[in-house]
Structure formats: C-alpha cells, structure tokens
Amino acid sequence: MASLLDKVGTLIQANLHALVDNALKSNSMAVIDQYIRDVDNNLDALEDAAATVGGQVKTLERKRDEYKKQQDELDRNIDLFLTQGKDDLARAAQTKLNSVKGLFDTYNSQLDRQNKEYKSLLDARLKLQAKLTTIRQQREEMVALLDLAKAKEITNKAIKSLDDLAGVGDADVARLAEGIRTRLDQASARAEMAATNLDSQMDDTLGRGELDAQLEERKRRLGINQ
Q1: What residues does each domain of the chain span?
Q2: How does DSSP classify residue 209?
Q3: Cα 13–19–21 angle (5° rounding)?
Q4: CB atoms within 10 A of CB 78
Q5: Does residue 200 surpass a pLDDT of 50?
Q6: How far apart are CA 156 and CA 142, in angstroms?
Q7: How confident is residue 57, by pLDDT bands cut at 50, 70 and 90?
Q8: Which of 83, 122, 188, 204 sits between 20 and 30 A of 172, alpha carbons compared?
C-alpha cells in the first residue's frame, strides 16, 4: 500500500507547467499522454485499494462493536453475581471480561490505523482525479498551441519553455500560453480546496461517531430505553 501511495504522490506532485513546457519544447504530446495513462492506471489501483481497506474498516467496526457489547454484558453480569453473593461466577465473568476487553482494545487500535489509511487513499484519489481533469482539459488547447507554433514557423530553439512562448511577441501564441498557465493555477487551487473539504468531512464523521457512542453509553447507565 505504501508503494502505491508513493507512486500516486509522485503523480500528484507532478509539475503540470513543466509537462506543458516539455510538450511544447519537443513539439509532441507524448509526455502528456504518458502522464494521463499513468494517472488512469494508478486511479484504478487506488479504487481497488480503497475498496479493500474500506471493507476492512467495516469488518473491524463490526468486530469491535461485538466485543463492546460482550464487554458491557459481562460488566453487568459481574455486578449481578456480586449482589447475589455468587463470587465464583463473578470471578469467572471478570476473567472473561478482561480477555474481551483486550480483544476490544486490539480491534479498536486496528480500526484507528485502518481509518487513517482509508482516509489517505480517499484523499489521494481526490487529488489525482483533480490532476487528471486539469491536464485533460488543457490537452486540446496545447495541441492547438503546438499547431499554431508550427504554422508560425517557431523553431525548437526558440521554444524552450512556456515562458519563452509567452514572451516571443506573437500575440496569438502568447495569449494561448498564458491562458493555459492561468487555468492550471486555478485547477490547482480548486484541488486544494476539495482536499480540505474531504478532510473536514472525514473528521466530522469520525467525531459524530465518537459522540454517539458516548451518548449511548450514558443512556445505558441512566436506564433510558432505546
């Protein structure tokens, strides 16, 4: 899983401006098309990984809840046995409670780790999708820009970077080049905002779950019917 996230991280951190510059410098879309293929392949891998880890999270939640239920039931039984003077039964129940509590803590710890990994996968998927959307939107305009450059007989030596294109004095080329740069910057900003929203949503969901669990426990202690 770590290697997948490393690969995805490299794609997310890719400098789209540099990809554009390389494509323009070489008069070829090969580097852009390869990036798109790499992103597509890793998105598929992310989907599979997120589904697997998400399933593990649900399994761990179910097992944890089962042990929590056993723990609560044993805790009540121990009090009942003690009030009835059945110390031997209370002792046996306490032994089982200790074992169940250890299992509950183990599953709860595993659940915390898996939740963090699941969140990382979802966050990476969101950011990578944003990158893919951005580069695909700009690809056609880049093709048009290359065609225009060729039509204007701009040589490879002159096309060293997108900044070179924006400054050669040709109004049409400069306008298209600057338009690409602007949209790349805007797309990056939107991706960052989307990732922040995902983090907030995940934190809110996890927070609500913890509060609900605390309130349910309090209702049980107060004898409030569910």
Answers
A1: 2-222
A2: H
A3: 135
A4: 19
A5: yes
A6: 16
A7: very high
A8: 188
Q: What angle do CA 71, 73, 78 make, to 5 degrees?
A: 95
pTM beyond 0.90, yes or no: no
User: Among residues of the chain, what percentage have pLDDT more than 90?
Assistant: 22
Q: Could you tell me which of 151, 169, 149, 147 has the C-alpha nearest to residue 159?
A: 149
Burial of 60 (0-12, 13-18, 19+ CB in 10 A): buried
Of the two residues 31 and 171, the one the predictor is more confident about is: 31
The C-alpha atoms of residue 121 and residue 127 are separated, in whole angstroms, by 10
Written as one letter, the residue type at 3 is: S
Q: Residue 199 pLDDT > 60, yes or no? A: no
Q: The tokens of 71 are what?
A: 């723990």
The band of 127, judged by pLDDT with boundaries at 50, 70 and 90, is: confident
Geometric angle at alpha carbon 84, from 82 and 90, rounded to 5°: 35
Q: What angle do CA 76, 79, 85 make, to 5 degrees?
A: 140
One-letter amino acid at 88 equals D
